[in-house]
Design brief:
Elements: E1 4-9, E2 12-15, H1 16-33, H2 44-69, H3 90-107, H4 112-137, H5 169-186, H6 196-212, H7 236-258
Antiparallel strand pairs: 1-2
Length: 265
């Protein structure tokens, strides 16, 4: 598994992780353009521009939260913008993309819950494909494992510990997220109110991250902020996932009982 496919110039490489993210974005755009339910929501130009803004928001949000939870690895604020160096938080990317979509919707007088539902429908597919890139890069690696399907990294550029059997946590996530995508996609007719799809997606994605973090080998903790009874059982990302989960549940009940169905809008 080689995290770097091709050297371009100086610090710039074509990375396995970046290739899978680009592949995921391309697949999502192709599926979105064929989506008849949301076809009237955006023009082709708006879809492209919103996708580009969302990529920027996702990258910046992911980098920012990554360094907030790994502050000891930050030597300069400029490092947050050096996205080619690797390092990012999926939860930060989700928050960044949601913020961008809401901003874009208000700027263009578009219904932001409908836009969030639109992106949420395909977000787990993009997330799943991206996790395969994580697997090749060695980031988001699992804890040591003696199972027969454990993975051993040997490439010197891998982020994961070398020559140690590890849980393929990235592949676990990829499979779970693929299931979440299929569940959302084939059950979308049951989400009849704006905001239900994004809420359900966040509930499932945060639950996946919370439980998968128990076998992640790159957990970060803040001991002095830990609740005494819990101690260091939950990582920083698990706490963030729990907060987002609570917000998603609250949003789901709010839109379910206070908004009109799509057909009456």
């Amino acid at each position: 598994m080689n995290p770097r496919l091709l050297h371009l110039y100086g610090p710039f490489y074509i990375n396995s992780y970046g290739v899978f993210i680009a592949l995921g974005i391309l697949i999502v755009i192709l599926l979105a353009k064929r989506d008849t339910r949301y076809k009237a929501l955006l023009t082709n130009e708006q879809l492209v521009s919103l996708t580009m803004y969302s990529i920027l928001g996702g990258v910046f949000g992911g980098r920012l939260l990554y360094f907030l939870t790994n502050w000891n690895s930050l030597y300069s604020p400029v490092q947050i913008l050096e996205f080619w160096q690797g390092g990012g938080s999926v939860l930060g990317s989700i928050i960044g993309i949601i913020a961008v979509v809401i901003w874009y919707a208000k700027k263009n007088t578009l219904p932001f819950f409908k836009l969030l539902d639109f992106f949420a429908l395909y977000a787990p597919l993009l997330h799943s494909i991206s996790r395969i890139g994580c697997f090749f890069a060695g980031c988001c690696f699992g804890k040591p494992s003696n199972t027969f399907f454990s993975v051993i990294y040997s490439h010197p550029d891998s982020i994961a510990p070398l020559c140690v059997p590890l849980h393929p946590a990235q592949l676990y996530s990829a499979l779970i997220l693929l299931f979440i995508f299929l569940l959302l996609y084939y059950a979308q007719d049951y989400y009849v109110k704006p905001g239900q799809t994004i809420s359900f997606y966040l509930m499932l994605a945060c639950t996946e991250r919370f439980f998968i973090d128990f076998i992640r080998g790159d957990q970060e903790f803040i001991p002095h902020l830990a609740i005494p009874v819990v101690g260091n059982i939950f990582s920083i990302n698990q706490w963030i996932a729990l907060i987002l989960l609570i917000v998603a549940i609250g949003t789901f009940f709010h839109v379910t009982f206070s908004t009109q169905p799509y057909e009456s809008l």
